[in-house]
C-alpha cells in the first residue's frame, strides 16, 4: 500500500519524537511518503489560499489514480473501525494508493474544499498542524492493526 501525506510547513521540533515513532510504525506496513509544502503568507487570506492551492495542485497532478482525502473540520468524522474499513476498501478495490492533505493555516477556499470529494474530520476542535500530522499517522497505524487483526497498545 502507498500512502502520501501532504502537509504545509515543517514539523515543529517539539513533536519530532512522537512523529518519528508513528512514522516508523506506519512505514513497516506501507510505502509512506510525507510531502512538505512551504506555506505562502502574504498577509492576505484570499491570496494565501490561492497560492497555497496552486502549490498543492502542482504536487497532486501525478495522483490521478490515487484516492485523495482532505482533512476538513466540517467533514465526516470516522470511528477507528470505519476509518480502517475505508483504508481496507482502498487496498482491496481501488489500487492501494491513498493520499491525505493537511491544509495551511489559512485553510482552503470554499471552491477547493468543494472540489475534494473525499474529506474527513478529526473533530470540531482546531489542532496545531504538527499535532494533526501525528494524529493522522496514529490513526493510519491503528487502522492497519485493525485490518491485520493484530493487538494495538492501550
UniProtKB/TrEMBL annotation:
<comment type="similarity">
    <text>Belongs to the RNA methyltransferase RlmH family.</text>
</comment>
<dbReference type="GO" id="GO:0070038">
    <property type="term" value="F:rRNA (pseudouridine-N3-)-methyltransferase activity"/>
</dbReference>
<keyword id="KW-0698">rRNA processing</keyword>
<dbReference type="InterPro" id="IPR029026">
    <property type="entry name" value="tRNA_m1G_MTases_N"/>
</dbReference>
<comment type="subunit">
    <text>Homodimer.</text>
</comment>
<keyword id="KW-0489">Methyltransferase</keyword>
<dbReference type="GO" id="GO:0005737">
    <property type="term" value="C:cytoplasm"/>
</dbReference>
<keyword id="KW-0963">Cytoplasm</keyword>
<feature type="binding site">
    <location>
        <position position="103"/>
    </location>
    <ligand>
        <name>S-adenosyl-L-methionine</name>
    </ligand>
</feature>
<protein>
    <recommendedName>
        <fullName>Ribosomal RNA large subunit methyltransferase H</fullName>
        <ecNumber>2.1.1.177</ecNumber>
    </recommendedName>
</protein>
<feature type="binding site">
    <location>
        <position position="71"/>
    </location>
    <ligand>
        <name>S-adenosyl-L-methionine</name>
    </ligand>
</feature>
<keyword id="KW-0949">S-adenosyl-L-methionine</keyword>
<dbReference type="InterPro" id="IPR029028">
    <property type="entry name" value="Alpha/beta_knot_MTases"/>
</dbReference>
<feature type="binding site">
    <location>
        <begin position="122"/>
        <end position="127"/>
    </location>
    <ligand>
        <name>S-adenosyl-L-methionine</name>
    </ligand>
</feature>
<keyword id="KW-0808">Transferase</keyword>
<dbReference type="InterPro" id="IPR003742">
    <property type="entry name" value="RlmH-like"/>
</dbReference>
<dbReference type="Pfam" id="PF02590">
    <property type="entry name" value="SPOUT_MTase"/>
</dbReference>
<comment type="function">
    <text>Specifically methylates the pseudouridine at position 1915 (m3Psi1915) in 23S rRNA.</text>
</comment>
Amino acid at each position: 500500500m502507498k500512502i502520501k501525506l501532504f502537509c504545509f510547513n515543517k514539523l515543529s521540533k517539539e513533536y519530532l519524537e512522537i512523529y518519528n515513532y508513528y512514522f516508523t510504525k506506519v512505514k513497516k506496513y506501507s510505502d509512506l511518503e510525507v510531502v512538505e509544502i512551504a506555506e505562502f503568507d502574504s498577509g492576505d487570506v484570499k491570496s494565501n489560499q490561492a497560492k497555497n492551492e496552486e502549490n498543492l495542485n502542482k504536487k497532486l497532478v501525478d495522483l490521478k489514480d490515487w484516492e485523495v482525502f482532505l482533512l476538513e473540520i466540517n467533514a465526516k468524522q470516522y470511528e477507528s473501525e470505519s476509518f480502517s474499513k475505508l483504508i481496507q476498501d482502498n487496498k482491496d478495490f481501488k489500487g492501494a494508493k491513498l493520499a491525505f492533505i493537511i491544509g495551511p493555516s489559512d485553510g482552503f477556499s470554499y471552491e477547493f474544499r468543494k472540489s475534494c470529494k473525499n474529506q474527513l474530520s478529526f473533530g470540531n476542535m482546531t489542532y496545531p498542524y504538527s499535532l494533526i500530522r501525528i494524529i493522522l499517522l496514529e490513526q493510519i497505524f491503528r487502522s492497519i492493526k485493525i485490518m491485520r487483526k493484530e493487538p494495538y497498545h492501550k
